[in-house]
Design goal:
heterodimer, A: about 260 residues, mainly alpha, about 0% strand, globular, B: about 130 residues, 2 domains, extended
């Protein structure tokens, strides 16, 4: 009987994922009510539980896809993969008030540029102080501090070694996780209340995954505004990383 | 019919990613440039147009609304499939670089949000589900 159940859960992976996520959401809402009387959003707990489960999955299976490495839960990979994630993000655009978005367009673009250059500088400086003194490694790790996609794309373009590329991916993933956890905690400090603030946040905090999960855990209505800007983050980073930022770094440190 | 809304969403999604790829290769970048953002803009424009024409009945809207409401569960599934172990193992360089970048960005966000006038609001935002 157990085998039959296992067979059905595996064969219907996506449906199993709906059930599992539904249970996690229910649990999170209860935790939010019981522990914080609803002050910390249920979805903040849900994202946090998700990351915790991903860690457990990684430790137990030695894989790279968190819980999805369990064959039984492989459907989570489809549900949380790029296809459905982007589909759902695009759908949130239905809630955007075009007038509000237009008012904050310029500051959104400014923050997008700052959000690329500032993390890059910090990442490159940390890399240098850790002994990665050549321009290629500094650029690659700096690009990883922008997003975990910009890092490897930049590294591959300028010929970085694979351990440096791995390090740049790790940097980007750590940053995304920090944004996911930190945003709801720091929302008041950052003043995340309005569409304009969400767009500034989306430009600076980068990574669609970090921004969207962070905003979702803060105020669901802010998500489309943040995502609208954040989605350009990876593109701008991949554009500037192997070109302007690499040339600037090489000019400063040589070779 | 509800599928009209979902099909509209699918069209915007695919067209946006396609244009993002074209933009990427036009710029000589090995990545999609703003595909999802372009898709969102397309959907915003099409919604305004169809709404004005009166071609957007409640049923059709529900075909998009469902996916918008599924957004947080999808994000939770995404969180559950991240390579958290690698992120933790990345060592002090990854941790420091990420933490530094995060702190600086938080400070700049706090500054930028408080500078200038903010006359945007969520007051007229459509109501979205409880979580």
């Amino acid at each position: 009987m157990f085998e039959a159940l296992q067979k059905e859960l595996t064969a219907n992976g996506l449906v199993t994922a709906f059930l599992v996520v539904g249970i996690v959401m229910w649990l999170s809402v209860q935790l939010s009510r019981l522990l914080t009387r609803g002050r910390v959003h249920g979805s903040a707990f849900a994202v946090f539980i998700g990351l915790g489960l991903a860690w457990i999955g990684g430790v137990m299976t030695g894989g790279q896809k968190g819980l999805a490495d369990f064959p039984l839960l492989a459907g989570l990979g489809l549900m949380g993969g790029a296809m459905l994630r982007d589909f759902a993000i695009v759908a949130t655009a239905f809630e955007v008030q075009p007038g509000e978005a237009r008012k904050a367009g310029l500051i959104g673009a400014v923050s997008l540029l700052l959000g690329t250059v500032l993390p890059f500088i910090i990442g490159a400086l940390v890399a240098r102080s850790a002994g990665y003194t050549d321009a290629i490694s500094m650029t690659t790790i700096g690009a990883g501090a922008v997003t975990y996609i910009v890092g490897p794309v930049t590294g591959a373009a300028i010929g970085a070694s694979s351990d440096v590329i791995a390090l740049s991916i790790a940097t980007g993933v750590v940053k995304a996780v920090m944004v996911m956890i930190g945003t709801p905690l720091l929302a008041r400090f950052m003043g995340l209340k309005t569409p304009r603030s969400a767009m500034i946040f989306g430009g600076l905090a980068g990574t669609v995954s970090g921004v969207s999960a962070g905003l979702a855990a803060t105020d669901r209505r802010l998500v489309p505004y943040g995502a609208l800007i954040a989605t350009f983050h990876t593109g701008v980073g991949c554009l500037l990383g192997p070109s302007l930022l690499y040339f600037a770094t090489r000019a400063l440190v040589g070779g | 019919m509800i599928i009209y809304g979902t099909a509209l969403l699918a069209f915007c999604h695919l067209a946006g990613l396609f244009l993002g790829d074209l933009l990427g290769s036009a710029l000589g970048v090995k990545s999609n440039v703003g595909g999802v953002g372009i898709a969102m803009l397309l959907l915003i424009v099409l919604r305004l147009y169809l709404h004005r024409k009166g071609w957007l009945p409640k049923e059709t809207e529900a075909g998009v609304g469902f996916w918008g409401a599924m957004y947080i569960p999808v994000v939770v599934a995404m969180a559950a499939t991240q390579n958290v172990v690698a992120a933790v193992k990345g060592g002090p360089v990854a941790l420091l670089a990420a933490f530094g970048a995060f702190v600086v960005c938080v400070l700049v966000i706090a500054l930028l949000v408080r500078s200038g006038r903010d006359d945007t609001s969520l007051e007229h935002a459509p109501h979205v589900g409880e979580v």
